[in-house]
Each structure stands twice: as C-alpha cells, then as structure tokens.
Model the fold of this input.
Amino acid sequence: MNRKITLAIVDDHPIVVQGLQMILTNNSEINVTGCFTSGSDFIEFLKNNEVDIVLLDVMLPDGNGMDLCKEIKSISPNICVLALSNHSERSIVMQMLQNGASGYLLKNVSVQELTSCIYDALNGEVAFSKAVKEILARPSANDLKGIPQLTKREKEVLQLIAEGKTTALMAKHLFVSPLTIETHRRNLLQKFEVKNVASLIKIAADQGLLKFIG
Amino acid sequence: MNRKITLAIVDDHPIVVQGLQMILTNNSEINVTGCFTSGSDFIEFLKNNEVDIVLLDVMLPDGNGMDLCKEIKSISPNICVLALSNHSERSIVMQMLQNGASGYLLKNVSVQELTSCIYDALNGEVAFSKAVKEILARPSANDLKGIPQLTKREKEVLQLIAEGKTTALMAKHLFVSPLTIETHRRNLLQKFEVKNVASLIKIAADQGLLKFIG
DNA sequence: AAAAAAATACCAGAAAACCAGTAGAAGAAA
DNA sequence: TTTCTTCTACTGGTTTTCTGGTATTTTTTT
Done:
C-alpha cells in the first residue's frame, strides 16, 4: 500500500479547522500534518515538510489567498492547492485558479464532495464544488449584492460599451441619436453607482453581464 | 418506479448519433425518443412531444447551437440541454451556458462521464466533462491569442483604472506625474490592441488580470 | 560596459466621456 | 384612464481620455 496522503489546513476560523479535521481523520488514507491560522506560518512549515495537498482559505488575516497560493506553488510546485472559501465572487474563483489552485470549494461543501474533490485534485483534475460550478456557469445568478435592474436597451448599450464602441458608433448601430446613447450610459453609471465606464465594465464583467467576445 | 427519462439527440454526424444511441440503449432508465440531424427538425418534434433532456451538438448545418439552445428553452423551459461538442473554445462554452444549457461535454467524454452528467443535469446541477473544467479553470492556457506581457507598473495602473480612478488620482496614488500615468495607459491600450479603457477592462477582466474589489 | 527595457515626463490638440437639468412620446401596468 | 417605466432627445458646459509626437533617467540584462 502507498504511503498516506499528507494534507494541511490553512484557515483562521477554529471551527472550520476543527470540522475539517474531524471529517478527515475518519479517512485512513489521509494524514492531516498541520493546521495553520496564517499564511506565513504555513509557508514556514512548507519549507521543511512535504505536503501533498493543502486546503486554503481565501481570506486570511495576513494577506490574501491569491498571492499566498502563488507563493505556495513557487516553493513547492507539485502541491495541490484546494481553495476553500465563503466567497462566491466569480473574480476571486478565477484568480485563485489562475494562480495555480487545483480547485475551489465553497464552505457549504458536503463531506462526500470534499473527499472526492481531494482525490480528483490529487489525480491532476480540476475540482469544483457544486455551487462553484453554478458560479462559473451562470455568474450573474448567484451574487450577493443585488445586480441593478437593467432595461433591455441598457443591456444592449452596456454590451456595446464593453466592445469598445464609441457613442457615435453605438448610435449608428442602434439607429438612435448619440444623445440617446449618452443618456443610457449615464443611467448605467448611476445604476451601478460608478463614475466612469472603466468601473462599469469591471463590475459588469465580474457579474457575468457581458458576453464573451471571441 | 418512475417513468423512463426521455432523451433526444441532435447531431448531424451519423457516427456520433449511432454511438450515443448504442451507449444509451444499454441504460434501462433512459428512452431515446428521437435523433435529429438539424435544429429545425428537433424544434418541430419538441412542439408535440415531451423531452426531459437533449444532447445538442453546438455546430449544426442550420444555425448555431447558442441560438437553438435559447429557442429550445423558450419552447420548453424545463428541458435540460446538454451541449455536446468538439469545440473547446471558452467563449462557445460560456455562451451556451448563458443561453440556458445545463452543461457542456466535449465529444471525447467517457461513457461513465456521459451518464453521470445526464443524471447531474436532470438533478438540476451543472454538468461539465473533465476537459471542460480545465477550460473554465485556465482560460489563458487554451486561448489562441496570448496575454500581453505587462510590466509591474502597468499592472498597477491597469488595476487602478479598473477601480475607476482618474489620471489625476492615479498620479497622486503612485506619486508620479499625471503625464506618466497617461503614458502607461497609452502603452496598455497599445499592448491589448484596443482603443479605449472600456475594452481594455473587458479583456483584462476576462483574462483574470484584475483583483476583486470589495 | 553596452544594450535593452522600464519608468519617468513633457507638449499640444482632438475626441470622447461626463455632468446637470429638462422633456416629449410610446408602451405597459394599475 | 391615469400612472409608471422606458426610450427617446435636447442644451450647454466641464473633465477626461485619446493621439502623436519626443526624451531623460533608472533599472535590468547581456
């Protein structure tokens, strides 16, 4: 038989750590080698110990999980990082993945899901919990803060802005006066409570309101 | 026992249809009620028949799968659409999902994966095949055009633009002249080959280059 | 030490976006 | 029918971005 899987937990919520530990000690193949409440503690540990997989909270007292994930992977490239978080914002999920995470689980994950995701990740697959798949598929559907209610025309204009069209071009495209487009843009800025199109597009993109442009 | 699951196949490749049919007739819970080689044929069928789930090829002779998916869902909102495709472009996957698909499978899917995805989808979950999860997780890896190489300063300015800061504010924030910021913005626009910050932020957001703003 | 890359800074003008306020017409909902 | 929402359009002015140049200093790489 193979040696046990070594697993570490990095999370500053004692309850979560306790819960995870309980679940995982029931699994004879997995050995929880350490629990850490801060990223720097774990980094120190990692320099002298071998870890197969780490369950990493995205929001820690010292620095954010994205940078930490990158650092972990640079120290120990073969480690699997499974992000574990309450945050269901699409951009956070994407950033963790781009920084080398092997998967992303929301903390409402079930015991079965948790273990199967651990094995999937160790197998080189990408592992998502159910809720995360929802987010990736339909970002706009699951967002905490309410998305402004946009009219049909506003959605069209929003999309065109994201495509880089100027007021004049949008007006031609929609067969209306440029002044009308300006009004729509103004209303969009107001609804999203921002002051320029840069933030408008940032938020709209995060909330999955924009089509992907091939 | 419940009634059988009714399943339809829409694909213009006879071999694929044959293969799917073979696999699925082995499953006693699933009843393949129809195979169609064009979208319009299936739409006609759907008007008079009830279908639980449809395996839908994304590229059909008559029109694309995205619009077809939307039409299917508008006729029969409770139907599950599982996109089945050779196309692994991220934008296609995202658009199918945004048009109401319950999942996306690449045609290299295994028999087990296929059936488990069918059950997941019918269960109201989002179903991806392994390869598709890869695509969703690491868009840049499967992307045709490379991400521009940004300098440290450019990344900072990009982030600040996304946060809605004006040139003057960015200058104060980074302790440089506003003219320097303008140069950086200009270089960013050039590197991304766009003409305004709206498209700049759109692309940067799509590629996960921007931090989440609390 | 030389070359390349990155960060800094400037000028001047054109184009576009942003702000504040107003308002008519069409369509949907009460 | 009246009210509400959406879409439309305007005036007039301010701010910011965008364009096309150029150029010095600092840092990194060869």
Summary: The longest strand of chain B covers residues 30-36. Residues 166-168, 182, 185-186, 189, 195-197 of chain B lie near DNA strand D (CB under 10 Å from a C1').
